[in-house]
Amino acid sequence: MILRTENITMRFGGVVAVDNFTMEVPEHDITALIGPNGAGKTTAFNMITGVYKPTSGKIFFNNQEITGKNPATIAKMGIARTFQNIRLFKDLTVFENVITAKHLHLKSNLFQATFRIPPYMSEEKRFIEETEMLLEKVGLADEKDAVSTSLPYGKQRRLEIARALATEPTLLLLDEPAAGMNPQETIELTNFIDAVRHEFNLTVFMIEHHMDLVMDISQHIYVLDFGLNIAQGSPAEIQSNQKVIDAYLGSTDDA
Fold first, then answer.
1. How far is CA 108 from CA 119, 124, 142, in A?
2. Which end of the chain has fewer CB atoms within 10 angstroms, the N or the C?
3. Which CATH architecture has domain 3-249?
4. Global pTM?
5. HSE-up (13 A, CA, CB side) for residue 121
6. How many C-beta atoms surround the C-beta of residue 102 within 10 A?
7. Is the dihedral of CA 118, 123, 126, 128 positive or negative?
8. pLDDT category, 254, cuts 50, 70, 90?
């Protein structure tokens, strides 16, 4: 298991956003985290990526505890993420958005970078080459000089994923990657995520409301409702789980 949590809980005052959530993400697979709005899904992501420190519980990545580590440290260890609301550098080009992320692994110091001496110049040359190769692989090479916000919505999503890939992760967290997409864009994104997983030898853990996407490409699914894990299993098991059906559609008792 590349990622696992042990009873992670997040409280905000008297509100329990996530309650004793335990899960395991198998390496190289696609695992989905689903649930109604407000179920605690993004809060779980924020704990895993260091935005929040859990009130209690533990998080392990590659069998190393990462509970409470800061986001930069976690990113350097190999966890990258995207956000529900696209967070591109709006005034930068496609190329600049991606190469900026490459600098997470910059080894040259400030002196070397300021005076552009050979070790820094060598790294910069490698970053440029790697960025161009990455843009080619994700189908954005033709738009590399375009300002990021000038891209169609679907390609902005693709660029955000490319920027995450530039940090060289082994685990990619996607927070509602299909949000705001039309059906055709969602189909294209589904194929893109699966292709990226194989091309870059990744594990993918995603939050998503588009059930067609989730059921098409996920091997494992966890379901949160009011912060509690109410179900887990394969897509077929989740589709037929009465607790999941009640959480999304309301139970007869609610009626």
1. 7, 10, 30
2. C
3. 3-Layer(aba) Sandwich (3.40)
4. 0.86
5. 4
6. 20
7. negative
8. very low
Q: How is the chain split into domains, by residue range?
A: 3-249
Res 219: pLDDT: 94
Q: What pLDDT, on a 0 to 100 scale, did the predictor assign at position 76?
A: 92
Residue with tokens 């949590």: 5
- Amino acid letter for position 174: L
Q: Rounded to the nearest 5 degrees, what angle is found at the Cα of 227, between the Cα atoms of 222 and 230?
A: 45
E strand map for 105-179? 171-175
Longest dimension (CA), the chain: 70
pLDDT in tens, 97-111: 999 888 766 666 554
Q: Which amino acid, residue 226?
A: F
Instruction: Please report the pLDDT score of residue 180 as a whole number.
Output: 83
Residues facing residue 9 across a β-bridge? 56
Tokens matching residue 11: 């409280």
Place of tokens 């309301």: 250
Q: Token pair for residue 114?
A: 């300021």
Rama region for 58: left / alpha / beta (φ>0; ψ in -120 to 50; rest): beta
Closest CA to 21 of 194, 174, 226: 226
* CB neighbours of residue 131 within 10 Å: 23
Identify the helix (H) or strand (E) that includes residue 153: helix 153-165
